[in-house]
Amino acid sequence: MSEAAQAAAEGGCTRHADGLWRCRWCGSDPLYMAYHDTEWGVEERDSRALFEKLLLDGFQAGLAWITILRKRDNFRRAFDGFEPERIARYDAAKVEALMADAGIVRNRAKIEGAVLSARAYLDLQEKGIHFSDLMWEAVGGEVRVNRPARLADIAAETAESRALSKRLKGLGFKFCGPTIVYAAMQACGLVDDHLAGCYRARP
Question: Which among 28, 82, 86, 145 is most buried, taking Cβ atoms within 10 Å?
Answer without folding.
Answer: 82
